Amino acid sequence: MYVSDVDFLSLFSNCYSEARDKFLIDAEAAGAVLTSCRHPEPGPDGEALHLDAARIGPREADRLFVLVSGTHGPEGFCGSACQTGWLRAQAGAPLPPGVAVLLLHAHNPFGFAWGVRQTHEKIDLNRNFVAHEDAPANPLCDRFYELLGAFPDQWSDEFFEHFRATKEAFCRERGREETEKWLGYGQYKVPHGLHFGGFEPSWSRETSSRLLREHAEKARHVVLIDIHTGLGRYGYGELLSVDPVDSAGFRRSRAVFGETVTSMPGGTSVATYSAGNVSEGVRRLLPQASVVAHALEFGTWEGPQLDPVKLKCQWMLAKDRLESGEGEAMRRAYRAIFYPENDDWKELVWMRAMMVCRQALAWLEDPEKRSRTGLPETRCINEKRMP
Ligand SMILES: [Zn+2]
Known about the structure:
Blueprint: H1 16-29, E1 33-38, E2 50-56, E3 63-68, H2 76-90, E4 99-105, H3 109-114, H4 139-148, H5 157-174, H6 176-184, H7 203-215, E5 221-234, E6 237-241, H8 248-257, E7 261-263, H9 278-285, E8 290-299, H10 306-318, H11 325-338, H12 343-365, H13 367-372
Helix pairs in contact: 1-2, 2-12, 5-6, 10-11
The structure holds zinc ion.
């Protein structure tokens, strides 16, 4: 089936349960083997939450493509639609011999259902994949939260103003680039602060690690894509690499995906590099395999008006106001930043996501041959020369 034959609008959902139902129906129709891991807490309507895994292809496959959704809660609306769409487009078609596909649906089911970035432990899951006994230091961030002080008991615009002024003072003193880099890097000391990576592994990390160990046991080559939203140009999906531009890892990523791969540590991407990210976590988890792992980051909206919404959401979570009427409005506003419910955005997401999936599977068909023939790093597999 061509991707253009899929009714892509029907892939996108209005709540976690609807997204999960669609995913399970299409996984079953595609002949996937399903594993559902129950989350310890319920969703906002009392519904059960799960991290679901759907596997297609033989257990003994030595090459595995992994597609992850919902690491950052409501960003899962996008990732879930891509997973369900891939299943629908794939249904019945054979995978390349020796290749299997593992779809991890709702990596952070709590955040997906409640519409918040963090897990129920108030952890940023994409900062959580560190060895906590040796968690990275972040002195700039420590100082920032010292000066910011405690979060107030009642939300006020004055608090946002205080946050903004504290950040601006850091930008003047240490430069904007340096300030943004460290405030987003991840921190392991202030539980109510932004990008808190936790004091220990979260439920989501433990669960996905168990599933990955089990399903990638025989894999020698793994390509993993963790779908995110919120940064970059509206509807465009950027492949973020955790490798420096001049590294072998980066060259290999470009051999798989072409020039659209950008480097976070190299400063060529829309996102700054963060500690404890999923990509590097999976690499450490599967030392027997060669792992090409990326976040695929779809741009949504831009503008300074988004900042207070993000801070408000952080405050609401820190103050346990998720269930209040005020909390509900904040969650709705937060979700809207990461999930533009526009047909044009959904179409762009859908086409780009399927292109990335095709590239991953084409690479996995014969990674060793592709490495030997030394595919020029500036070419995409979907690039065509004029005849
Ligand atoms: Zn994200």
